[in-house]
């Protein structure tokens, strides 16, 4: 049987298969490639790529944790099509994940709950238990744990696109782990992917990348690659940087040396804005671009008891979103690291 037939049950490719099986299990199957590598379908939207020979490094690439963030999903699907068609050979043991198939079908960020707040065990807590996102987050945690085993050289790139435009189109977030510093090879990977901005998180959270970094010891990044658009409406030329960088990593080819002048601009979190409840008022407009700076003294939010004003130097807003449940993040205020 052909590789496509084995893996995709009559659907043309992985994306079509994942959408057609959203919310349902897919039986594990293995397809052998001519070079001795294998593609193992572990379940719907979860594939393991096993090279004919590989070292102990492990790579996890995820997209579609938010179902409407379609460009990275299309990029991963395109790369997998190339592998299936024999255009290159896999040399790094890799777990490929399309995160939330049900919300991909719906064309929405999520169905019941934002899945990127349900990792590190949050899926087991009220009010999330029983929702499709809670079940999927638990499944993805387990798949990652089994894939990583006792490997200690693990990278995880969780690919997203942002709801709003951004003054810095592509940027990565580095989850907080006490004492950890971003390794130079990871900085070089980001630059190779045309990501020139890095935000250092200030505390561990319940995102997928925070889970893999805190619980699996991975070097993990959430990578924002552009703007949310429906399937078929992405200009994939704008995503060539990540596509080429991932293909190079899959093939385990040597990393290019970044030009001397090529450096990441690093930001740090100054303040995390949380929805504090009924009296919460957020003074940032809905359509403001990520990284828009606010001048010292500007009131950003208030709730009757507390008022937050920008400090002595400008602070820039990221991910402004007033429509989140009480207790969740409404946005981040950041500034360039000195
Ligand atoms: O554009 C937005 O408001 C959200 C884009 C997005 O989904 N971002 C991630 C960032 C995760 C992180 O903080 O590492 C998210 O909000 O889940
Ligand atoms: Zn997202």
From TrEMBL:
Domain Succinylglutamate desuccinylase/Aspartoacylase catalytic: 57-247
Keyword terms, alphabetized: Arginine metabolism, Hydrolase, Metal-binding, Zinc
Associated pathway: Amino-acid degradation; L-arginine degradation via AST pathway; L-glutamate and succinate from L-arginine: step 5/5
The protein's required cofactors: Zn(2+)
Residues holding Zn(2+): 66, 69, 160
Highest taxon of source: Bacteria
Enzyme class: hydrolase
EC number(s) on file: 3.5.1.96
A single GO molecular function term of this UniProt record: succinylglutamate desuccinylase activity
Pfam families (alphabetical): AstE_AspA_cat, AstE_AspA_hybrid
Catalytic activity: N-succinyl-L-glutamate + H2O = L-glutamate + succinate
Annotated AstE/AspA barrel-sandwich hybrid domain residues: 263-337
Entry annotation: catalytic residues: 224
Record note on cofactor: Binds 1 zinc ion per subunit.
Signal peptide: none
NCBIfam families reported in the protein's UniProt record: arg_catab_astE (TIGR03242), PRK05324.1 (NF003706)
Family: Belongs to the AspA/AstE family. Succinylglutamate desuccinylase subfamily.
Described purpose of this protein according to its UniProt entry: Transforms N(2)-succinylglutamate into succinate and glutamate.
Name used for this protein in its record: Succinylglutamate desuccinylase
Lineage, opening ranks: Bacteria, Pseudomonadati, Pseudomonadota, Gammaproteobacteria, Pseudomonadales
């Amino acid at each position: 049987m052909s590789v496509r037939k084995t893996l995709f049950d009559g659907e043309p490719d992985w994306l079509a298969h994942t959408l057609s099986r959203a919310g349902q299990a897919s039986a594990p199957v293995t397809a052998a490639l001519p070079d001795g590598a294998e593609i193992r379908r572990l379940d719907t939207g979860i594939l393991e790529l096993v090279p004919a020979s590989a070292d102990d490094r492990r790579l996890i690439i995820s997209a579609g944790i938010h179902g409407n963030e379609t460009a990275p999903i299309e990029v991963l699907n395109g790369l997998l099509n190339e592998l299936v068609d024999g255009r290159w050979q896999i040399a790094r043991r890799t777990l490929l994940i399309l995160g939330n198939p049900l919300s991909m079908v719906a064309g929405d960020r999520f169905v019941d709950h934002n899945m990127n707040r349900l990792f590190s065990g949050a899926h087991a807590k009220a009010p999330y238990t029983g929702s499709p996102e809670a079940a999927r987050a638990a499944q993805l945690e387990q798949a990652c744990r089994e894939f990583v085993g006792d490997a200690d050289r693990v990278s995880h790139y969780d690919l997203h696109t942002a709801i709003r435009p951004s003054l810095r189109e592509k940027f990565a977030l580095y989850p907080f782990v006490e004492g950890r510093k971003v390794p130079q090879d990871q900085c070089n990977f980001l630059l190779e992917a045309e990501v020139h901005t890095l935000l250092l998180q200030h505390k561990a959270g319940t995102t997928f990348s925070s889970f893999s970094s805190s619980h699996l010891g991975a070097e993990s990044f959430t990578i924002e690659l552009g703007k949310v658009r429906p399937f078929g409406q992405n200009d994939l030329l704008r995503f060539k940087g990540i596509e080429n960088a991932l293909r190079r990593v899959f093939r385990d080819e040597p990393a290019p040396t970044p030009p001397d002048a090529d450096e990441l601009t690093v930001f740090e979190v100054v303040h995390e804005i949380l929805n504090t409840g009924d009296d919460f008022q957020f003074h940032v407009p809905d359509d403001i671009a990520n990284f828009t700076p606010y001048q010292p003294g500007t009131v950003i939010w208030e709730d009757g008891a507390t008022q937050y004003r920008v400090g002595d130097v400008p602070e820039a807003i990221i991910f402004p979103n007033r429509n989140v449940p009480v207790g969740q993040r409404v946005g981040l205020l950041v500034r360039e690291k000195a």
